[in-house]
Amino acid sequence: MNVVFAVKQYISKMIEDSGPGMKVLLMDKETTGIVSMVYTQSEILQKEVYLFERIDSQNREIMKHLKAICFLRPTKENVDYLIQELRRPKYSIYFIYFSNVISKSDVKSLAEADEQEVVAEVQEFYGDYIAVNPHLFSLNILGCCQGRNWDPVQLSRATQGLTALLLSLKKCPMIRYQLSSETAKRLAECVKQVITKEYELFEFRRTEVPPLLLILDRCDDAITPLLNQWTYQAMVHELLGINNNRIDLSRVPGISKDLREVVLSAENDEFYANNMYLNFAEIGSNIKNLMEDFQKKKPKEQQKLESIADMKAFVENYPQFKKMSGTVSKHVTVVGELSRLVSERNLLEVSEVEQELACQNDHSSALQNVKRLLQNPKVTEFDAARLVMLYALHYERHSSNSLPGLMMDLRNKGVSEKYRKLVSTVVEYGGKRVRGSDLFSPKDAVAITKQFLKGLKGVENVYTQHQPFLYETLDHLIKGKLKENLYPYLGPSTLRDRPQDIIVFIIGGATYEEALTVYNLNRTTPGVRIVLGGTTVHNTKSFLEEVLASGLHSRSKESSQVTSRLASRR
Amino acid sequence: MASLDDPGEVREGFLCPLCLKDLQSFYQLQSHYEEEHSGEDRDVKGQIKSLVQKARKAKNRLLKREGDDRAESGTQGYESFSYGGVDPYMWEPQELGAVRSHLSDFKKHRAARIDHYVVEVNKLIIRLEKLTAFDRTNTESAKIRAIEKSVVPWVNDQDVPFCPDCGNKFSIRNRRHHCRLCGSIMCKKCMELISLPLANKLTSASKDSLSTHTSPSQSPNSVHGSRRASISSVSSVSSVLDEKDDDRIRCCTHCKDTLLKREQQIDEKEHTPDIVKLYEKLRLCMEKVDQKAPEYIRMAASLNAGETTYNLEHANDLRVEVQKVYELIDALSKKILTLDLKQDPPPHPNTLRLQRMIRYSATLFVQEKLLGLMSLPTKEQFEELKKKRKQEVERKKILERRAALESQRRLEERHSDLVSHATNGEVVSLRGGPAPLRKAEGWLPLSGGQGQIEDSDPLLQQIHNITSFIRQAKAAGRMDEVRTLQENLRQLQDEYDQQQTEKAIELSRRQAEEEDLQREQLQMLREREREREREQFQAASLHTRTRSLDFREIRPFQLEPGREPRDHLAHALDLGCSPAQSSAAPKTPSPSSALEPIRVWSGPPALDQEFFPQSTTSQHNEVPSLNPFDEEDLSSPAAEGTASRPAAEPSLGPPACVLKEYNPFEEEEEEEAVAGNPFTSPDSPAPSPFDEEDGHPHQRPSGPPVPGNPFEEAPCTNPFEVDSESGQEGEEPIEEELLLQQIDNIKAYIFDAKQCGRLDEVEVLTENLRELKHTLAKQKGGAD
Question: ipTM of the assembly?
Answer without folding.
Answer: 0.82
